[in-house]
Amino acid sequence: MTLVYPERFSQARLAAAVALTRFGYGARPGEIDRVAGDPAGWLLAQLEDDSEPTELAGLPQSPTILANSARAEAAGGETLRRHRQRTLAAQHREAGLHILPAIQGRNPYRERLVRFWAEFFGIGLADPVAAPYAHVFEREVIRPNLMRRYYDMLLAALRHPAMLLKTNNVASFAKRSPAGRDRQENLATDLARLVLEDYTLGPGGVAGATWRGPDLLALAQMFTGWTLVGAEAGPETAATVRRAPGLPATFRFDERLHAEGSKYFLGRNYPAAGVLEAEAALDTLCRTPAVARRLATLMARWFVADDPPDVVVEDLVDGYAQFGGSLGGMATALATSLPAFEPGLRKLKRPDDLVISIYRCFDLDPGDGTQVVDAIAALGLGPKDYAAPNAVATSANHWLEPTRFADRLDWAAAAAVRARQDAAAGPETGVRLGFELLGPTLSEQTFRRLAVALDAGESAALLVLSPEFQTR
Question: Which of 48, 183, 374, 472 is most buried, taking the most CB atoms under 10 A from its CB?
Answer without folding.
Answer: 472
